[in-house]
Amino acid sequence: MKELSSAETRAMFLRFFESKGHSIEPSQSLIPKDDPSLLWINSGVATLKKYFDGSVTPKNRRITNAQKAIRTNDIENVGHTARHQTLFEMLGNFSIGDYFKAEVIPWAWELLTSPDWYAIDPEKLYVTVYPDDQETKDIWLNVVGLPADHIYEEVDNFWDIGEGPSGPDTEIFYDRGARFDAADPKENHPGGENERYLEIWNIVFSQFNHLPGLTNNQDYPELPHKNIDTGMGLERLVSVFQHTDTNFETDLFWPIIQQVETISGKHYGENAERDVSFKVIADHIRAVTFAIGDGALPSNEGRGYIIRRLLRRAVVHGRKLGIQKEFLQQLVPTVGKIMASYYPEVLANADYIASVVQSEETRFNKTLSDGLHLLADVMNDAKQNQGEIAGDIAFKLYDTYGFPYELTVESAAEAGLTVDQAGFDAAMKAQQERARAARGNKVSMGVQNALLTDLKIPSTYVGWSQLVVEDTTLSALIVDNQLVDQFEPGKQAVLAIFDQTPFYAEMGGQVADRGVVLNQAGEVVAKVEDVQKAPNGQHLHTLSLVKPLTVGDHYRLEVDQAYHAAVSKNHTATHMLDQAIRNVLGSHSTQAGSLVTAEGLRYDFSYNGAVPADKLQAIEDLVNEKIIANLPVSWVETDIESAKKMGAVAEFADKYGDQVRVVSIGDFNAEFDGGTHAKSTAELGMFKIVSEQGTGAGVRRIEAVTGQGAMDLFKQHDAWLQAVAQTVKAPQLSDVPTKVAGVQKALKDAQSQVVSLEQKLAQQSAQAAFNQVTTAGDYRLITAEIAATSMDALRATADQWKQAALSDVLVVAAKVNDKANLLVAVSQQAVKNGIKAGDLIKAIAPAIGGGGGGRPDMAQAGGKNPAGIQEAFGKAQEWLSEH
C-alpha cells in the first residue's frame, strides 16, 4: 500500500476515473443552489441531482468529483469518535445512464489494489452486498475474484432517500487489524459496530424509481436509465494511507491541532478528555472556514445558526484548553494552506474569513461571560429546587449561549447537581421540528421522466439575433406526457418543440419570453405562456391553443418584443447592480440568487447586516453613472480560460461547458451569462432601488426597477410628496421639510403635556391608594389600580412608593385600551427575606391573561384581560401569605 498525502489521494482518484472517460466536475459551493430541500450540500451526488432525476442531460454521462460537504446531524459526536466530521470531502464517480455494475465494480477494485494506483493489499479488503442483489455478489466472486469469506450480505445495503432514484449498494471495507476489534465478538465483521473494519467506499446502483405512495422497495419499478453513484470519504481513506488511528491525526487536521497546542500550551495525546477539545476545534474551524468562504455568515437562523453554533462550541472547547483570548481567526490560514492544492480560494480569501470569525468570536466572548453568570444563578436556584437544573433552562444555555449540553452537565455535577435530560431532549426536538417546518416539505430528488430524457429531437435557439422566426417546423407535441401528432384547442396546456425558436427559456433567474405562434396564413394559433429547457437542451414551449396544431407543419414564431425588451433591460441592470455591490461593499458580497422580470429585478447577495443608507445610495449612484455613460453591451462565445483572462466573473456554484458566453458592459463588468440584454446601458433610462431587506442568514435582497418602472416609481413618490405638501399646507415642495418639522415639534410638545397630565393623574390616584395598606402574611401590601396609559407611569408610581417606604410590597395596575399593565415592586428588606418581584409577577400575571418578569426588586407584565386586575390583586395577597 502506498503512503499518500491527502492531496495525492484526491488527485489519484480523479485521474483514475478521468482515464476511464469521466469528466472531472469541480467541487461546488456548500450553499445549495435552487435546492430548497437542503440546508447544505451534504454529499457528492447532491450537486448532480438534476442529472440523476433526468431534468438535465449532461454532455458527458460519466462524471467524477471531489465534493466538499457538511453534515450537522451528529455535531455532538464530533471529537468523541474517530470518524465524525461536520465538513468532509466525498470522492465519487457517477454514471448517468451509461455504465453499470459490470464496469464499476472491477474499476473500484483496480483503483484500490493495482500497483499503478492505491496498491492496497487485497487481503485487507472486504465487501457487503444487498441479499437480493445476487448480480453484484457474482461480480465480486467471479469477475473480481474476491473470496467468498470476504463478502457479507447486509439487509441495510439499499440506498433510498425518498421519491426518486434508489437501489441496492455494495460497501467496501478495509481491515485495520485485530487490535481494533470490538469487545463483543459478534460485532467483529464488516458493517458491525467496531473500529476494525473501516468502510471506505459505497457504490450505489440506482436502478429503481421510488414513486410517490410506494413504501416497499420490492414494488419500485425499474428506472428508464440506470445510474451509478459512489462515495468515498477522503478523510477515512487518508487515515488508511497514513496509518493513523483516527482521521484527526492525518495531514487534513494535524497542522491545526499542532497550532492549537502552541496557542494553548497543552499537548494532544496526553489526556483523552482534553483530546476531544483539540478535535472539536480542528473540525469546527475547517467547517466554518469553508462555509464563510462560500458566502454563509453567522446569524440566528438557518445556515448562519449552524456556523454560529460551531464557532461557539470551538470557543468553549478553547476555554477547556485554557485559551482565554480570541484564537480561532489564527487557524483560518492554516486551513487554507492544508487545502490549497484543490481549494486555492480558501487561502486567497483567508483575511476576509478570519475577520468574520474574529468578529463572531469577540461577540461570543461577551455572551459566554453572560452565560457563565446565568449558569451560576441557575445552579443556585437548582440547589433550592431538589438539586436539578430544568431541561428548558439547560436548552436555553445551549441554544442562546452556545453551551454544549455536556458542559452544563459537567458544571452541574461539580456542584452536586443533576440536569433534566428528558426536558432538554424535548426542547431540542421541538426546535428541530420548527426547523423542519420552516424548510417545508421539499422533495429531495425528482422522478425521472423517460419521455423527455429520451427525446433527442434537435432544436436551435436563435433569440440572440432575432425575435421572429418566419418559418419553423413543429417537431413535437406533448400532452399528458405522451407524444401526439395533432391537438385541438381546449383547457389543457400543450408542450411543443420547434426546430428553431426565438423564445428564451427560463434560466439563471431570468423569466421566459412570451409571444405567439402563427400559421402560414398569418393567423394566431397559440399563445406562448412559458418556455423551459428540456433535459436534452431543447426549448420546451408551454402553449395555450387558439387553433389546431399539427406536427410537421410550418409556423411563424413571434416574441412579444416590448416584454422581451423590458426583461432584457432589467437583466442588464442586474449585472450592473452585481458589479456595483462588489465595488462598494467588497468582493466577498457574492450573488445568492436573482429574479429578472419585465416589472423589475430582485437580487440576493451575501452580506452581514443591513446595508448602510450611504452605501446603498452609492450603489444606486454608481449604476446610474454607468447608465448615463451609455456603455455598450456586447457578448462573445469563447473557451473558459479565455473568458477568465477577460476578467469575466463566474458563479462558483455553476457548471460551464467547453464554450461559454461572456457578456460585457463596457469596461465596467464582464460575466459568464446566458441571458438576454439591452444593447447599451442608456436603454435602461434610469435605475432606482425600491427596497433593501434581509431574507435569511447573512443574505440581503435588493429590489429595483429601470426605465418605465423607475419613471412610474418617481411619479408615485411625487404624488405622495404632493399629498404631504397639501396636508401640511406647504406652498412649495421645498417648504415641506420645514413644515413637517414644525408639525413634529408641535406634536412632541402636545405629547409632553399629555404625559405631564397623566403623571399628575397617576400621582393623585397613587396617593389615594398609598393610604390603603393591608397585611399579607408577614408583609405589608399595597394594591392599586390607577389612571395611567403606559408602563412608564406605573414605574413612576413605584418610584414614589419606594421613596415614601409605605409598605413591603406594591402591586399596581392600569387598564390601557383593551389591555392591562401590571407592575410589582418589592422593598430591599423583603428581597433579602426571599420575596422576589419576578416570582410574584409570574404568579399573578395569568389573571390578566399574560406573563412577565424582571428584577428581584421590580417586575412587570402585560395581558389581554383587564377584567382580571382585581383577581391579580387577590392572588398577590394569597402568594405573600404563603411565603
Automatic annotation (TrEMBL):
SMART domains per record: tRNA_SAD (SM00863)
Record-linked SUPFAM superfamilies: Class II aaRS and biotin synthetases, Putative anticodon-binding domain of alanyl-tRNA synthetase (AlaRS), ThrRS/AlaRS common domain, Translation proteins
Subcellular localization(s) per the UniProt record: Cytoplasm
A single BP term in Gene Ontology: alanyl-tRNA aminoacylation
Superkingdom per UniProt: Bacteria
Family matches, as InterPro entries: aa-tRNA-synth_II/BPL/LPL, Ala-tRNA-lgiase_IIc, Ala-tRNA-ligase_IIc_anticod-bd, Ala-tRNA-synth_IIc_core, Ala-tRNA-synth_IIc_N, Ala-tRNA_ligase, Ala_tRNA_ligase_euk/bac, DHHA1_dom
EC numbers: 6.1.1.7
A cellular-component GO term for this protein: cytosol
CDD domains from the UniProt entry: AlaRS_core
Domain spans labelled Alanyl-transfer RNA synthetases family profile: 4-716
Reactions that this protein is recorded to catalyse: tRNA(Ala) + L-alanine + ATP = L-alanyl-tRNA(Ala) + AMP + diphosphate
Protein's UniProt keywords contain Methyltransferase: no
Xref: PROSITE patterns: AA_TRNA_LIGASE_II_ALA
Record function comment: Catalyzes the attachment of alanine to tRNA(Ala) in a two-step reaction: alanine is first activated by ATP to form Ala-AMP and then transferred to the acceptor end of tRNA(Ala). Also edits incorrectly charged Ser-tRNA(Ala) and Gly-tRNA(Ala) via its editing domain.
Free-text domain note: Consists of three domains; the N-terminal catalytic domain, the editing domain and the C-terminal C-Ala domain. The editing domain removes incorrectly charged amino acids, while the C-Ala domain, along with tRNA(Ala), serves as a bridge to cooperatively bring together the editing and aminoacylation centers thus stimulating deacylation of misacylated tRNAs.
Protein name per the record: Alanine--tRNA ligase
